[in-house]
Amino acid sequence: MDWIVTKSNIAEVRTSCAAEHQASLQVLEKIGLERAAFHPASLFLSATQAQADAWLYRWKR
Q1: Mean pLDDT for each consecutive 10-residue tract of the chain (61 residues)?
Q2: What is the CATH code of the structural domain delimited by 2-60?
Q3: What's the confidence (pLDDT) of residue 16?
Q4: For the chain, which residues make up each domain, given as ranges?
Q5: Potential cystine with 33: which of 17, 27, 55, 57 (Cβ 3.0-4.6 Å)?
């Protein structure tokens, strides 16, 4: 994120993360992304072949 913020012209970054992955959610927040929306059962986890709830995160210039 440092490069995006300081050296790029990228205006927005979006990503999603399984709601149950608390450590990953904390990393996204630590690097400056904010929770934007909750999407129930919208993420497919290939390792378990299951649908999972997800948080959409974003950073906007």
Answers
A1: 95 97 98 98 94 98 94
A2: 3.40.630.30
A3: 97
A4: 2-60
A5: 57
